[in-house]
Amino acid sequence: MQGYLRADGRKGVRNVVVVAYLVECAHHVAREIATPFRDRGVHLIGFPGCYPNPYSLAMMEKLCTHPNVGGALLVSLGCEGFDKRRLKRAIEVSGRPVLTVGIQEIGGTRRAIAAGREWIESSLPAILGQQPVAMGIDELTVGTICGGSDATSGLTANPAMGVAFDLLVADGAKTIFEETGELIGMEHLMAARAANPALGDELKRSVAKAATYYATLGYASFAPGNADGGLTTIEEKSLGAYAKSGQSTISGVVKPGIAPPAKGLYLLDVVPDGEVRFGFPNINDNAEIAELIACGSQVILFSTGRGSVVGSAIAPVIKVCANPETYKRMQEDMDVDAGRILEGRATLPEVGREIYELVQRIGNGEPTKSEALGHQEFILTYKSFEPLGPACLPV
Amino acid sequence: MANSDQDGGQPAGKVARAVMRLSPRDNVAVALRALKSGETVTLDGVPIAIRGNIAVGHKLAAQPIEKGEIILKYSCPIGTATSPIAPGEYVHTHNVESNYLPTYELPK
């Protein structure tokens, strides 16, 4: 593989410029700036809220200094609560080109759009001209998520991604699985795989927190389509979702924006700490993808049975289709046909290895189906977290 | 019967298996293709009549299940039966509930 070397020593598998709105009021201007450059690697991200929130500030810092990002344009209305100076400083310190366009300061919509486009036009050649360097699998962080799950997800795509995860871990990569709300019922099995008993307790605690959080809100992390697809209960969905993690020892628990400190398999605890404050922990799949990326994931593995079509800003999303019937209908959106396992046309280890090899080709620049179709979804909302406990990262 | 599955639970190959018990302890099996009500398939060498149309990946009772019995899939508990379930009968939200959080479905 080849990657783009950043000042902090990490390497990106893409060289993206992000245009980031810092409040919804700047969203239109940011989108107008980015749209003409969409096919040249300029991605739109942003935070809609006007109230300060340490989580969303940390997320934006991690995303704007992600190894796949080569530069950032910040779009501010001017009066919002977001700490735009701190974000800009973090990007400057990372060695990336950055500019803040203030809509009120510059004189309105038209001038802000013009100034933003001018900066991108002048900055893009140098950013895109950066020469890639050799990159090993041990320099990869790969995140995994399932979305639009059905009863085939846990039979084909999720365990196949688990096989790919085991191969990546064996090669020294960092791997992250997530959504503790979809691990309800799996806590004891998971704890038994922890690097030590104290970490096992943390794993159980994180799932118990998720169960309480979702119970307060009245719903499990379970969409009507999950039931239409044959999943009867949250614990059955969890059983399938859990298979994404493979068989490796679990090396630690991280929270959004915290990168795994060493090689191995990590659980991303996405459920906020403390009392229920801002609603559902992850309002959709892209909220989880953004958090996996903020933890340093350069590539995302996404399994779907019902047929999700999403990609993401910043990182390529590899779509592994679990259901052979869905694949027939939606193959233009799917990178891997894992339903072959159900039909007896391929084995689980074969599809797992196919995913493992595809991660390296995508990492080397080959576009995913969702990238080729222009998908660049992004969402970030309010959350609050406490620092990681001492037992979360034993290594 | 509509048609019959002849492979007797052999590994997938010449004739694709129709149903599969994921773990020997399980009281449910999963459909590897869409199953029609009235057809007979073979599960672990034993014929089993399908009661109700069952979509790919969905579950059927592999043996008689009593009300209150824990449903086991891949040896893991995935819920509790809310009514008696006969072998070959469709197993889903109408006869199983979560032991954690209720399942949300849209009104039909």
The multimeric state of the shown protein is heterodimer
Greatest chain-chain contact: A-B, 33 and 33 residues
Low-pLDDT sequence parts of chain B: 1-14
> Helicity range of the residues of chain B?
under 10%
The amount of beta strand of chain A, in percent, is 15-25%
> Within the largest sheet of chain A, what's the order of strands?
10-11-9-8-12-13-14
**Class per helix and strand makeup of chain A:** alpha/beta
- Spatial strand arrangement across the major sheet of chain B: 1-2-5-8
Distance between the termini of chain B: 30 Å
Q: Which percent range describes the beta-strand content of chain B? A: 25-35%
Tally of strands of chain B: 9
Mean pLDDT of chain A: 96
Secondary structure: number of strands of chain A: 14
What gyration radius of chain B follows from the Cα positions, in whole Å? 14 Å
Radius of gyration based on Cα positions of chain A: 20 Å
In DSSP terms (H or I, runs of 4 or more residues), the helix count of chain B works out at 0
Notes on the structure:
- The complex is a heterodimer of chains A (395) and B (108).
- With 395 residues, chain A is an alpha/beta fold.
- Chain A contains 14 helices and 14 strands.
- Chain A has helices spanning 27-34, 54-64, 84-93, 103-106, 109-128, 157-170, 187-191, 197-217, 224-228, 234-242, 285-294, 324-330, 348-363, 369-372; strands at residues 2-5, 11-12, 16-21, 42-46, 69-76, 98-102, 133-134, 141-146, 174-178, 250-254, 264-268, 299-304, 317-321, 336-337.
- In chain A, the strands form three sheets. Chain A has a seven-stranded parallel sheet, with helices on both faces. Chain A has a four-stranded parallel sheet with strand order 4-3-5-6, sandwiched between helices.
- In chain A, α1 (27-34) packs across α5 and α6 packs across α13.
- The longest helix of chain A has 21 residues, at 197-217.
- The model of chain A has no long low-confidence stretch (mean pLDDT 96).
- By secondary structure, chain B is mainly β.
- Helices cover 0% and strands 29% of the residues of chain B.
- Chain B is built from no helices and nine strands.
- In chain B, the strands form three sheets. In chain B, strands 1-2-5-8 form a four-stranded antiparallel sheet, with no helix packed on it. In chain B, strands 6-7-9 form a three-stranded antiparallel sheet, with no helix packed on it.
- Chain B is globular, with a radius of gyration of 14 Å.
- Chain B starts with 18 loop residues before the first strand and ends in an 11-residue tail after the last strand.
- The model of chain B is unreliable at 1-14 (pLDDT under 50).
- Chain A binds chain B through residues 150-152, 155, 184-186, 189, 211, 214-215, 219-220, 222-224, 227-230, 232-236, 239, 305, 323-325, 342-344, and chain B through 12-13, 16-17, 22, 30, 32, 55-59, 71, 73-74, 76-79, 91-93, 96-106.
